[in-house]
Amino acid sequence: MADSNARKFFGTDGVRGPYGGPVINERFARQLGAAAGRWLVERGVKNGLVLIGRDTRSSGVALERALGAGLAAAGARPCSLGVLPTPAVSRAVGVESAALGVVITASHNPAGDNGIKFFGANGMKLSDGQELQIERLISDEANPGADVPLTARDMTGNYLAAMEELLPATLDGWSIVLDTANGATVHTSSAVLRDLNAEVWCIGSEPNGENINADVGSEHPEKMSEAVRSHGARLGIAHDGDGDRCVLCDETGAVLDGDEILTILATHALAYGRLAANTLVVTVQSNLGVDAAIAAAGGRVVRSAVGDRYVIEKMLAEGATLGGESSGHIICSEIAPTGDGLVAALKVIEVMLTTGEPLSALRRRLVKFPQLTSAIKVREKKSLASLPTLGDVIAALESELGSRGRVLVRYSGTEAKLRLLVEGPTNAVVRDGLARIEAAVRADLDVP
Fold first, then answer.
1. Are strands 77-83 and 49-54 parallel, antiparallel or unpaired?
2. For residue range 362-409, what is the model confidence (pLDDT) as tens digits?
3. Do 240 and 136 sit in the same domain of this protein?
4. Rounded to two decimals, what is the model's pTM?
5. 3-state helix, strand, coil in the chain (%, to 5)
6. In the 8-state DSSP scheme, what is residue 390?
7. What are phi and psi of 402, to 5 degrees?
8. Which of 59, 80, 90, 107 is flagged as catalytic?
9. What CATH number is given to the structural domain containing 421?
10. The CATH number of the domain where 209 resides is what?
């Protein structure tokens, strides 16, 4: 029996897909906007202000216009923020007392994709249940509203001012490489760092509507690393297309992922008694070395499902204010209600300023367990509990590893893929474990 609570269009981070496909197109954007407007009215919010931001994809302009038309037709008051990072839109919702925030973005995906994600009046992403409520209000009407001129509002200055207040000192003498992925942070992160007196070398800073994330940004940190070495920079910072992720590299060009960033921030906060509830929230994807490092520093790690929304939900439940994902989503909820790549970078720079240590030394606070991952395309996402060979192999491997490692097998939330992860005491054990699981997957599932 189908799950009556399953969302049809929303995934782990809003609605996403190829532009011009069955979901991400102007007609569906109108329908979704109208549904969101009706949802607000059902909640007693009439003529509610809805702030719409977007990244630099060329398709964002038409989608914004269509979404705004649907919202207006349903009684909402849409307002365009133009190109603006996702966390800046989240912040603007609170500053302007808006009823809803919307970002038109496909995050780290290529330019041919786009997406739509919503923020509630508290600046946080909507819950699964709230997204399902909006889905149920989607009507198949072809034209739920005519195009209307959107009012515009500039919230860039407010965001920049808030970011510049995060550091206790200026960055005189600092040389920083910044990769903005040809995306939404192209005019914000560089402005903040330069206002703090840093020398900034920019790459991925010439968006043309079609080059967002193209061999640059947090998914492709190689150019950042090379530029750090060639310029003798103190560190490198890379964002994804909408600016809610952060990947760093140290002065040698070695890349730090989200696990290393979170460990630096959490252990530093613990040393000063400032980690709320002595708790760091990570996802099931994070390396077991994080748990060991935080425990050694006197704290604890709590894990959530993959997705920054689920991290935030777990943070609220645990009274934590720091959490994130190994992909580089870092949430410092005392500063921002959602992941913010610039906030994460500035907080790490603050640790560097306070300790006087280079990033190459700070990163050694995390000693990672050997880990391998794999993603296998499948024709059908069958229930994992119904796969006998895979179940037996996972049980046997978990018994062998005990507390020295772990196994994670889960379906992707956005693609027809089964994601595998094995951690263990040695690289050989991990390689063997992953090979056994991959063989079991091919025995139980139809793999193209």
1. parallel
2. 999 999 999 999 999 999 999 999 999 999 999 999 999 998 999 999
3. no
4. 0.91
5. 40, 20, 40
6. H
7. 55, -130
8. 107
9. 3.30.310.50
10. 3.40.120.10
Location of structure tokens 């297309």: 241
Q: Share the mean pLDDT of the chain.
A: 95
Residues paired with residue 77 on neighbouring β-strands, in sequence order: 49
Quick one: tokens of 386? 């119904």
Contacts of 393 by beta carbon, 8 Å cutoff, 6+ apart: 436, 437, 439, 440
Q: Looking at the structure, tell me whether residues 71 and 181 fall in a common domain.
A: no
Residue among 245, 248, 277, 271 at smallest CA distance from 261: 248
pLDDT for the residue 142? 58
pLDDT at 26: 95
Q: Please, which pLDDT band fits residue 149 given cuts at 50, 70 and 90?
A: confident
Tokens 């995934």 locate to 11
Flag whether pLDDT at 2 surpasses 90: no
**Edge-to-edge strand list for the sheet holding 255-256:** 199-203, 175-179, 235-238, 247-249, 255-256
Tell me, yes or no, whether 28 and 147 share the same domain. yes
In a domain, 394, yes or no: yes
In the predicted structure, residue 186 carries a pLDDT above the cut 70: yes
**Distance (Å, rounded) from C-alpha 150 to C-alpha 29?**
15
Which of 319, 342, 365 represents a domain boundary (last residue)? 365
* 107 catalytic per annotation: yes
Structural domain tally of the chain? 4
Q: HSE on the CB side for 324, CA within 13 Å? A: 32
- Say whether both 146 and 33 belong to one domain: yes
Instruction: Please check whether residues 393 and 265 belong to one and the same domain.
Output: no
Question: Residue 81: enclosing H or E segment and its boundaries?
Answer: strand 77-83
Claim to verify: residue 52 and residue 120 sit in the same structural domain:
yes
Q: Which two tokens stand for residue 198?
A: 């840093």
387 and 430: one domain? yes
Instruction: Supply the DSSP symbol for 12.
Output: B
Helix (H) or strand (E) run with residue 249 in it: strand 247-249
**Digit-coded pLDDT (tens) for 28-56:** 999 999 999 999 999 999 999 999 999 99
Which of 190, 121, 191 minimizes the C-alpha distance to 157? 191
* pLDDT tens digits, one per residue of 264-307: 999 999 999 999 999 999 999 999 999 999 999 999 999 999 88
**Does residue 262 share a domain with residue 199?**
no
Decide if 250 is inside a domain: yes
Write out the residue range of the structural domain in which residue 346 sits: 257-365
